[in-house]
Amino acid sequence: MKFKDLEQYILKRQALNAALTLFSWDQDTEAPEESVEQTATYVGVLSHELFEVITDKKVKQLLLELESQNLSLEQKTIIKKWLKDIEKFEKIPAQKYQSHQELLMKAQHVWQKAKKENDYELFLPYLKQIVEEEKEFAKYRRNNEHYLYDVLLDDYEPGFQSQQLDQFFNMLKKEIIPLLQKIQNSTHIIDKTYNKRYYDIDKQKTFNHWIAEYVGFDFNKGLMKESAHPFTTNFHNKDVRITTHYYPHNLESALFSTIHESGHALYEMNIADHITMTPIGVGASMGFHESQSRFYENILGRSPLFWKPIYSKLQRTFEPLLDDVTFQHFIDGINKVQTSLIRTEADELTYSLHIMVRYEIEKKMFEEDIDYHQLPTLWNKLYKEYLGVTPSFDSEGILQDIHWAGGAFGYFPSYAIGSAIGAQIYAYMKKTTDIEEWILNGDFKKIKNYLRDNFHQYGAIYNTNELLQKVTGEPFNPQYYIDYLKEKYTQIYHLSH
Predict the structure, then answer these.
(1) pLDDT band (50, 70, 90) for residue 143
(2) Second CATH level (architecture) for the domain 162-492
(3) 216: which of 36, 51, 57, 428 lies 20 to 30 Å off by Cα?
C-alpha cells in the first residue's frame, strides 16, 4: 500500500470542498435573492458526498495501513488530520450532518434579512436549532474534554482550551481596561471628523485595489468583490478571493478591511504548491490565520512607517477632502481609541473586549441552559460592562456577526489570539530583521518572503505553538501583545508610564 493510493481520494475530497466553497462565495457576493432554497439542496447533496469521501471505510483502512509506514512529515500530517476528521464525522449520523449543512445555508440567508430588518425574533429559531444540533454533535465527538465548548474550540485552535483562554482574557481585562480608562481621562483629544466626510465610492474602489496590491495581494491569483461582511475564501494558492464593504461616509472601514483580508489572502497565496490542494493546504489554525490579517491591518497598516511614503497618494486620490489633515493628525485618527458597538469597526485596543463578549455568551450557550429570548439583553449588559456602550438595536448588537448563522462556534476567540500572535511575531522580527526599514521603504516583498519562508509555506503541517516555537523559540506568549499595546497607546495619547 502506497501514499499514491490515497491521492485520488485527496483530490476528490478537495474538489467537493472547492464546489461547496464556490456556492458559499457566490451566495455571499452575487447570487440572486430567490436562489437560496434550491441551492441549499445542492449544498446538502455535496456535503453528503464530502462526508462519504472523508468517512469511506476503504479510505480509513488505507490511512491506518499508511500510518505505520516511513512517510514524509507532510504525508504523515495529512493522514493524522484525515483520521481526526474521520473520528469527528463517524460519530455524527450522515443524514443529520447533511440536514445541518442545509440549515446553515438557510440560516445565513435569514440572518442577512434579520439584520437588515433589525428583527432578532426572525433569526432566533434558527440560532436555537443550530446551537442544539451543534451541542448534539459536540456530545457525539467528546473525548476527554472537560467542557463541551472545548470540543468546538479544537476545530479552530488545536491545543487551546477554555481554561487557557479564560487566563488570557483575564490578563487582557487586567491590563487593557486600566489603559483604556487612562486614555478616556487623557487631555489628548483626537478629532477624526474627517473620516465621516463624503468619500466617493468609485475612488474608494480604486484606492482599495491599489493598497491591496501595495501590501502584496496578487490579482493574477485573486480577486476582490463586495459583501455585507468582509471575508476571504480560497480554493488553492492560485485562487484566493477577498471582499470588502464600502461606505460613502467612512473612509477607514473599507480601507482597513481590505488590508486585513489581504493579510489572510497572502497567507493562502504563499502556502507551498505541493500541499495547497490537500487537507493541510490551509492555515495552521484560525488564530494563526487571524494573526496574519491583524499583523497587516494593525501592526503594519496603522503605523506611521506604513503611511509615510503613501499618505500623499491618499490625499491626492480624495482631493481636497484630506488637504487640512496633516500626516500626524491622520496617524492619530486611524489609531483613535473610541468605544464602539460594532466589532469590525472597533479600534485596535478595545477589539479584544468585543471578542470577550462573544466568548462569554458562546460558553453560556454550550455550558448552561439559557433562554434564547434573553440573549440580546445579556449581550447589551456585557457591552455596557466592558465597553461602556449599549446597543439601541439588535442589528448593531447580537445580530451584527454572521458567524453563529454559519455554525462557527469557537471561532471568535481566534481573533484575540491572532492579535496576540501578530504582536509576538512582530517583536521577534524587530529583533532579527530590518522590518521597520522595509515598511518605511514600502518593501512589502521582503515582508511577504519572510512570512512565507518562516510561516506561510507550511500550511497546517505544524500547529500554532509548534510554528511559534520553531521560529521565535517560544510558544504562544500574550505578554508581547500587552507590551505592544501599552507602548503604542502610551505614545499616541502622551500618557505617563
Answers:
(1) confident
(2) Orthogonal Bundle (1.10)
(3) 428
Q: Is 27 exposed, middle or buried (0-12, 13-18, 19+ CB in 10 A)?
A: buried
Strand order in the sheet with 232-236: 222-226, 239-244, 232-236
pLDDT score of 97: 86
How far is the C-alpha of 343 from the C-alpha of 128, rounded, in Å? 23
d(CA 301, CA 258): 10
Contact 482, 172 (CB under 8 A): yes
What gap in Å lies between CA 475 and CA 455, rounded to an integer?
Answer: 14
Selection from 158, 157, 165, 123 nearest residue 358 by Cα? 165
Q: Quote the CA–CA distance of 322 and 194 in Å, as a whole number.
A: 7
C-alpha cell at 65: 495501513
Residue range(s) of every CATH 1.10.1370.30 domain in the chain = 162-492
Q: What is the pLDDT of residues 460-497, one digit of tens each?
A: 999 999 999 999 999 999 999 999 999 999 999 999 76
Active-site residue numbers?
261
Please provide residue 242's backbone torsions phi and psi, each rounded to the nearest 5 degrees.
-125, 155
For residue 223, the one-letter residue type is L
Helix (H) or strand (E) holding 114: helix 94-117
Residue among 195, 295, 302, 201 at smallest CA distance from 244:
201
Q: What is the pLDDT of residues 170-216, one digit of tens each?
A: 998 899 988 998 998 899 999 999 999 999 999 999 999 999 999 99
pLDDT band at 365 (very low <50, low <70, confident <90, very high): very high
Q: How far apart are the C-alpha atoms of 354 and 488, rounded to whole Å?
A: 20
| pTM of the full structure | 0.90
C-alpha cell at 270: 504563499
User: How much is the mean pLDDT over the chain?
Assistant: 95
DSSP-derived pairing of the beta strands 239-244 and 222-226: parallel
CB atoms within 10 A of CB 406: 16
